Each structure stands twice: as structure tokens, then as C-alpha cells.
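Slide 14.
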Amino acid sequence: MIQRDSIALRLMLISILWITGALALVGLVLVLLFENHIQSRFENQLADHLEELVAAGNVNADGRLTLTWSPADPRFNRPLSGWYWQVRGLDTVEGRLGSSSLKDHPLPVPGPLEPSRLVRTKGPGGWDLVVFERVIGMPRATEPYRFAVAGPTEDVAEQVGDFAEITASILGLLALVLVALVWVQIRFGLRPLTQIQSSLSDVREGRADHLPEDFPSEIKPLVSDLNEVLHYNRALLDRARTQVGNLAHALKNPLAVLANETKTLPGEQGDLLRAQVAQASENVDRYLRRARIAGAVNPLGVSVAVLPVVEDLIYSFNILYGERGLFIETDISKGATLRVDPEDLEEMLGNLMDNACKWSASRVRVTAKDQGTSPVPSLALRIEDDGPGIPQRHRGQALARGLRLDETTPGTGLGLSIVAEIAELYGGSLKLEDAPTGGLVAELVLPR
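Slide 15: predicted structure.
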């Protein structure tokens, strides 16, 4: 389907305009030329009939004009057919001869008398006529005679109309063929742009790291520039991750030394220092993680298959919780992918699956469901357990940073808040719902 703001639509509209205009002009010229031809042939036909009429004329011994034969065209015999002939004296109508089609009506020839002329007039039967008249002197005649032959203009108009209809039909069919050929030409000409779009999609989904170079010469400079941008983007991201790693190393070592030294400090001062060092260490971890994720959010070429990550985590949790006999099942297609850094996906799923395994009675289920493309293409990962669940009124607390609903279970209370924070940075979300089995469902929605 052509989009309203597409180049293809603009080219099609321009092509339709010039095709329509050119063929209309050609049709008009053809009709005018044909009309001139028919008009000329019609006038020649009148002249031929008049010559035949003159050849049939004869002046007898009494000086009266007679015809030795009548014109052969049967239209002169049909009453009021529009085809008429008439012979009369120069200044008198006595002895007038006329075709049977006139039915004794005179043939009007208005205007000043000339040796030869073509005039238009209204004739018997209401016909619009073209009259060809000549003044000719005959042997033994006392005065010249006026020979006139008339034919209806409708004959010319009818032939021109028929030709115009046929011409319009042929040119209309030709226009459709030309528009179809132009459409094929446009699609073929714009195919490299479609290939660029497909190649960029491959880069975005991680199936390729650059655009191919086999494009027409007009587009090669654009493709080269795009590849340079992609290369620069990857290099910039790698440098950012390296700097984040260096900063983490530079900050964590001094904090670890401070934490170790403050272990032996007694009293309230020691407790205060240990709390501040722990908070600083936590904040460093938090903001370094945010910086790393922010650099990885929506980069071109980042894509991860969901099923292998889930299978690796299941292997780990089967070892960790093996003595409890948990059954972890999955319903995830092999083609399910997400535009998320693999480490971030592993951290989010690891936290959610770990919580599910901690609280589950016997069964954990991990599924993936396509969420469509509104507002962006996304995938919903659902981690369901058959444990006690979380009451609706406590779910906001469960997502809060550092808050634990059960102090008897090991943990820091940071898992769900970290997952929600990472998901939000990727434009996704985390929500908690009731499971059909009575436990909890954690639904993680991320872009795909």
C-alpha cells in the first residue's frame, strides 16, 4: 500500500498528470486532424456531385435546360434526406430543376452571388446544410445557370464523434497500460531504498552489523555514510562501557577498603560510618548500572534470543533448588527475541525466577507472548508460581527499593525494584498479578 507522503505516490501522481495531459493533447490533435480531413472529403464529395450534375446538363433547341440523367447517389431520392441538388437560372426560378429529396421545396442559397462558393444554411427538413454552388454558362443557353449541391453537416459531426469515441477508448486503454508500466518502473527504481530499509532492520535486530555495499552508484554514498555512523555508534558504546567499568573499579576498591576498616570501629560512630559506606557502595552500584544500561538502551544491532537465557537460568536454579523438587516449565518460541542487552535480560529474569523459585510450592512456569506493535513492538515475559502470592495492597511495597515483606526469607529487597528500574530504562514495564494457581505472576514487558 502506498503511503500518502511516499516518494512512490508523488512519482505516480506526476506520471499520471503528464500521461493524462499528453494523451489528451494527442487525442485533441488527432480529432482536429480527422475533422479537417472529413470536412475536406465532404466538400470534395459535394464538388464531385456538382460536376456530375453539370455533365448531365443539356440545353435543348428551345433553350431550356434538361438533364440527360440524374445523379446516382440514392440519398438524392429520399425525401428530405438532407442531400439535395438544384439547377436554376441566374435571376429567375422558372424552369428550376431539383432532386426528388427536395419535394418541390426550393434550396435556399443565401448571400451574394459568386462564381463558386460554399455556404452554410438551414434547408428543407430542418437540416443544417453545406451548399456548394457554381455559376456555369451552358452552350446555346441565353444566360448562365446556378448549379447547387447540398449535404447535411450532421454527417461530418457524426463521423467525427465516432472517431473521437474510438480514439478516447484507445487512448484510455493506452493510459492504463502506461500507468501500470510507470508503477512497475517506480517500484523497480525505488527497490534499493526498500533494500536499505530491510538492511537497517537486520542491523537493528542484530542479524547484521553493517549495510551491504551492493547498491546503485546513486545510493552508495548514503550507504557508506550510514555504515560509518553505525561503526561510530558501536565504537562510542564500547568506549562508554569501558569507561563505566574503569569507574566502577576505581570506586569499588576504596569503598571495599573503607567497609573493611570500619568493621572494627566501636560505638555509634562505627555504626554510622558502616551505614554510610554501605549506602555509598549501594549508590555506586545503582548509578553505574543505570549508566551502563542507558548506554545500551536501543542501540542498533543489540538483540538477544529469550529461550537460551531462560534455559541457562533453569539449569542454575535446578541445581540451587534441586532438593525441593521444583518443576520449572517454559512456553517460549525459539524465534522470540528482545532488543535488550543479554546481561540485562539475564539479570531481570534471574531476579524474577529466583523469587518465584523461593516462594513456589512445586511449580514455576515461564512464558512469552507477543504484545503486538502498539505503541512499539514488544514481548511479555510471564513468570508464574504456585506460592502464597502477594496481596494487592502490598504489591506497591514489593516493588519499592529495599523493602522486604518477609524478613525470614534471605534477600536484600532490591530484586523487584532493580527489575522494574531496568525495564523502565528500556521503555518496558513490570507488573504483579494473581496467578490462576493462587500464586503470583510477574509480567515483564520489553521491546522486541
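Speaker note: The mean pLDDT is 84.
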